[in-house]
Amino acid sequence: MEFKTEFIQKLKTSKNIMVFTGAGMSAESGIATFRGKDGLWNKLKPEELASFNAFMKNPDMVWEWYQYRRKIVENTEPNPGHYAIVELEKYYEVNVVTQNVDNLHARAGSKNIEELHGSIVRNFCMDCRTFYNDLKLESEKTVPRCEKCNGLIRPDVVWFGENLRGNAFPNSEKKAKECDLCFVIGTTAIIYPAAYIPMTAKQYGAYLVEINIENTDLSYQADYSIFGKAGEILPEIVRLVKEDVFTN
Ligand code: APR
Question: What is the CA(35)–ligand 1 centre distance, in A?
Answer without folding.
Answer: 6
